[in-house]
Specification:
By secondary structure, the chain is mainly alpha-helical. The protein folds into two domains: about 120 residues, 3-Layer(aba) Sandwich (Rossmann fold); about 60 residues, no CATH class. Helix content is about 60%, strand content about 5%. The chain has ten helices and three strands; from the N terminus they run βαααααβαβαααα. A three-stranded parallel beta sheet has the order 1-2-3. The longest helix has 19 residues.
């Protein structure tokens, strides 16, 4: 799986995706171009300070050194990519060169789905992708969410607070709805 820059913030989504990759639910691929764009875009949007984003990128490099797609592998593909935005060409070329099956983005219009599907790359959004992962790994995702809550010592979110952050329209509201229903059913079954 390769994620467009716009899917890696808010931080809670990026953290969840990386945690799932660490647990082996799926593999997150990255490029230096992606990390450079994160360092440029996120501070400008006011979501995080530059140093915090640089630290996050360093953590990605350290945690997933074998998941980097070097630019030399996709450089020749960039100009051949479909779509209107050259910035998006970098990401779709990298995803294809890295043999990713899925490209996550909020802006599916920037990545022509049918054309990229013919190249073996499915374009979808984070919410849909996390729903699909939850259908396959519900207990793992519940455990990972619980660990995320425990590990976020600086912001100290409760389950409800984390779910509120994740359920914003730019995050994964359908996924959170599934998780809440699942937890409600589990609680109901324990009461019976």
């Amino acid at each position: 799986m390769f994620a467009d820059t716009n899917t890696l913030y808010p931080f809670y989504i990026c953290d969840l995706l990386l945690r799932c990759s660490e647990e082996g639910l799926f593999e997150v691929l990255w490029t230096e171009d992606l990390l450079a764009e994160l360092i440029e875009v996120i501070p400008r949007s006011g979501h995080k300070k530059t140093q915090a984003v640089q630290n996050m990128c360093a953590a990605i490099r350290n945690a997933f050194p074998n998941n980097e797609i070097p630019r030399s592998k996709y450089q020749d593909l960039i100009d051949q990519m479909p779509g209107n935005d050259p910035d998006d060409w970098l990401h779709s070329a990298a995803a294809i060169a890295g043999a990713a099956k899925i490209l996550l983005t909020r802006d599916t219009s920037g990545f022509p789905e049918k054309t990229l599907a013919r190249l073996g790359l499915r374009v979808t959004n984070v919410d849909q992708f996390l729903c699909e992962q939850f259908d396959i790994f519900p207990d793992d995702l519940i455990r990972i969410l619980d660990e995320q809550i425990k590990d976020l010592t600086r912001s100290r979110p409760t389950q409800s607070t984390l779910f509120d952050h994740l359920s914003r329209p730019t995050s994964a509201p359908k996924f959170v709805g599934r998780v809440r229903r699942y937890l409600g059913l589990v609680a109901q079954n324990h009461q019976i």
